[in-house]
Specification:
- The chain has 434 residues and is α+β, with helices and mostly antiparallel strands.
- It has 2 domains: 191 residues, Beta-Lactamase, CATH 3.30.450; 152 residues, 2-Layer Sandwich (Heat Shock Protein 90), CATH 3.30.565.10.
- Helix content is 54%, strand content 18%.
- It contains 12 helices and 11 strands.
- The strands form 2 sheets. The protein has a 6-stranded antiparallel β-sheet.
- The longest helix has 80 residues.
- It is elongated, with a radius of gyration of 36 Å.
- The structure holds adenosine-5'-triphosphate and magnesium ion.
- The site of adenosine-5'-triphosphate (ATP) has 19 residues, from helix 11 and helix 12.
Length: 434
């Protein structure tokens, strides 16, 4: 390599200028170190997954330390214990049993002090822990360097040799630099992992909230139907009978009959209103006749009064899905219909429901004013964005994917696809959504 030779020459020149003893071999080591460092750096750059970073980092280090074995121990913060996360050339038993408290043994001391240790023969080192394991593993020369990120020690990298071997101070320097580089990468990967877990938790929570909300709606709808709505229809019937009785009786007080009629029509109106609320909370038709009937009813009731022409097309043969799946699908469609009514200024809307053996898909389009989807990245404080966010979560919890496409002046399309195979079981973490 041209560049590599240049660097080697520069290091050679620097070391001869400093008049170092054994300059040739030192320059060689620094050169190898430089190459190792840039190799590790290139290998781990762009990697985000902790295990991949550790494994590739270790492999590269062992590659330049001919014939060496070793591993990376990470510090478990809560228990303040070091344990092997990746290793190469060491037995599983050694790696599993070698767990060291901070300050314990060589690696524990390195992690505690943040300073590297170089030993010619660890098997005869009095301060080494688990000398039994070290003996049966046959380890002799040993280097342990801290993996640091700023002032934090996140773990240690141990490199050992089974044959008598003289690791040099230059080896320690090289490993130290690589350790610092790995430390920073490990810290970043750990942060990423924490972020991913936090996101996952949040997503799980959001999905649980949606399920809880649906159950609550169903419960309120049932109670309203069984009690309030039934009572109101009873009162309306009674009032109707009273109006008839009063009309037939000798008491021809017109004001009284008028009043009675008003109360009766008011009751009928309230009853209708309660039925509308119940249908919005949880349409009974969804349970009795299924998704297509519920969508048809809801779309017509919502859009026709606004003079928005709506067509509903069903492809394939409709079949029933579990109640919670139908409820989630209905909510998605209801949200989109609500958006058309509220925001689109459309004249026409189209709903397409496609039943395939192993997939259900839907698309809801309008020819309205459209909007800039890229500007809607979050649920705003006003609640704007909650509808589309919930839609994505609901579809995601069914293991499906969904999207919104819109262009200013050219309408909006909401689509979703959900796998519907026989053995699909819907759960918290099924899909990612999109
Ligand atoms: N079909 C549509 N036509 C035009 N704009 C739309 C359409 N659908 C959504 N939007 C825009 O996207 C925004 C977000 O929609 P979303 O359903 O997430 O929230 P919202 O309708 O404002 O509130 P919510 O649904 O919680 O009542 C809307 O405020 C609107 O600006
Ligand atoms: Mg909405």
């Amino acid at each position: 390599m041209k560049e590599g030779n240049g660097v080697k020459k520069a290091i050679d020149a620097a070391s001869s200028e400093l008049n170092l003893a054994d300059e040739g071999s030192k320059a060689d080591k620094y050169y190898r170190g430089f190459i190792a460092l840039s190799r590790v750096s290139a290998a781990i750059s762009g990697l985000h997954e902790l295990d991949a970073i550790l494994k590739i980092g270790l492999d590269n280090v062992l590659n330049i330390m001919n014939g060496a074995v070793g591993g990376i121990m990470l510090l478990d913060e809560p228990s303040q214990t070091l344990f092997y996360r990746v290793y190469h050339g060491l037995s599983d038993k050694y790696a599993e049993e070698m767990r060291l408290k901070l300050g314990e043994g060589i690696a524990g001391k390195v992690a505690q002090s943040g300073r590297a240790v170089l030993l010619e023969d660890i098997s005869s080192e009095p301060s080494a822990a688990r000398i039994d394991l070290i003996g049966s593993e046959g380890l002799r020369a040993f280097i342990s360097v801290p993996l640091r990120a700023k002032d934090n020690v996140l773990g240690v990298m141990n490199v050992a040799s089974r044959v008598p071997h003289h690791f040099s101070k230059e080896d320690v320097h090289i490993l130290h630099s690589i350790g610092d580089q790995l430390g920073t990468a490990i810290e970043q990967a750990m942060l990423q992992e924490r972020l991913r877990k936090a996101r996952e938790r949040l997503r799980k929570l959001a999905r649980q909230n949606l399920v809880a909300e649906e159950e609550e709606r169903r419960r309120i709808a049932r109670e309203l139907h069984d009690e309030t709505s039934q009572s109101l229809s009873g009162i309306a019937l009674q009032l109707e009978a009273l109006v008839e009785m009063a009309a037939k009786s000798s008491n021809q007080d017109a004001q009284f009959i008028d009043g009675l009629k008003k109360v009766q029509s008011l009751t009928v109106q309230v009853h209708k209103e309660v039925s509308r609320v119940i249908a919005n909370l949880h349409p009974t038709v969804l349970d009795t006749l299924g998704l297509v009937a519920a969508v048809r009813q809801h779309a017509k009731n919502t859009l026709q009064p606004l003079n928005i022409n709506v067509t509903i097309e069903v492809k394939g043969t409709e079949r029933r899905f579990p109640a919670d799946v139908e409820a989630a699908l209905f909510r998605v469609i209801q949200g989109s219909i609500g958006n058309i009514a509220e925001h689109s200024k459309a004249r026409n809307a189209s709903i397409v429901l496609v039943y395939q053996p192993d997939e259900f898909s839907l698309s809801i389009s309008d020819d309205g004013q459209g909007f800039d989807v890229s500007k809607l990245t979050d649920v705003e404080a006003s609640g704007r964005g909650r509808g589309l966010f919930s839609m994505r979560e609901r579809i995601g919890s069914l293991g499906g994917t969904s999207g919104v496409e819109s262009k200013i002046g050219a309408g909006t399309t909401v689509w979703a696809k959900i796998p519907m195979g026989q053995d699909i079981r819907y759960g918290e973490n099924k899909g990612t959504g999109s």
